[in-house]
Amino acid sequence: MNPTPALPPSTPTATPMTPALPPTLTTPLFGLTIQRQRFSEARDSLMAVAASRGQPSRVVVTPNVDHIVRLESTAEFKALYATADYIYADGMPLVWVSRGGKAALPERVTGADLFVALCKDCMTENRSIFVLGGMPGQEQALLQGFANSYPGLRVSIFCPSMQFTPDGAEADLAIAKISASQAQIVFICLGMPKQEQFAFRYRREQTQNNAPLLLCVGAAMEFALGQKRRAPLWMQGIGMEWLWRLASEPRRLWQRYTVQGMKFFPIALRQWRAQKNN
Question: In this predicted model, what pLDDT tens digit does every residue of 66-122 receive, in sequence order?
Fold first, then answer.
């Protein structure tokens, strides 16, 4: 597993002034305010945001167990992460822990599933997307992959270098490309924390000609285009998708799902006790 990138000391924490979002039910969990929606409701909510040109950009994050563990040790970044406009529980363990409280989450809403669903909806509604991610030089191959999997979808792609930083020159270029594309939805597939840092920078700085919706979705594009295989549905349903991913990429993911994963248990126990006391 690659070492966790260091967080820049200048990470901003201020929340931009934005109009209120339509009210939705939420669940407080691990210091975050998580949307208490089923997948179909989340899909409809986000497509409504994508259609709202002229409004401030909205940021979507989808925390899993790895995210929760890493956020525990980075208080400044956690404070920023918590300002996301929509937070959905990607990891099934988050749903399980929520059941110890009075406002249980109905189901997980994964970034990978949102990616596929919103791409299909954009095809139907003739909306355009922008993808920031992929390996350098892959743009044409990825465009062909989208043409095969989502024929007719209007898509623009920028694959930055491995040295991409959310406050660097490539990030400036990405913002310019997003603006030029006129995309309604931006999928940021850079991995945590780079994707979130870029999304929050974009939301803070772009006040005109901005994309309405930005989703931080990690490896979702690779799953959607068949570059990586997702776990069978039955494994996803019982919360064992992590085991499938570990078996698929053991060298890259063993530390995340063993050493790092074990750190989740005391965090979850603390959350469970807090819920019982309230």
Answer: 999 999 999 999 999 999 999 999 999 999 999 999 999 999 999 999 999 999 999
CA dist., res. 150 & res. 181, Å (int): 18
SS3 130: strand
C-alpha distances (whole Å) from 220 to each of 103, 126, 268 are 28, 21, 26
**Helix or strand run (H / E) with residue 155:** strand 154-158
Q: What is the pLDDT of residue 21?
A: 59
Query: Tokens in use for 203?
Result: 């939301």
- Tens-place pLDDT, residues 126-184: 999 999 999 999 999 999 999 999 999 999 999 999 999 999 999 999 999 999 999 99
| 173 token code pair | 């270029």
**Of 115, 158, 165, which Cα lies nearest the Cα of 135?**
158
The number of helices, as runs of H, and strands, as runs of E, in the chain is 14, 8
121: left (phi over 0), alpha (psi -120 to 50) or beta: alpha
As given in the structure block, the two tokens for residue 56 are 């401030």
Q: What is the pLDDT of residue 22?
A: 62
| Distance in angstroms (rounded) separating the CA atoms of residues 69 and 2 | 16
CA distance 58 to 206: 11
CA dist., res. 162 & res. 151, Å (int): 29
Contacts of 90 (CB under 8 A, 6+ apart): 62, 63, 64, 67, 108, 109, 110, 111
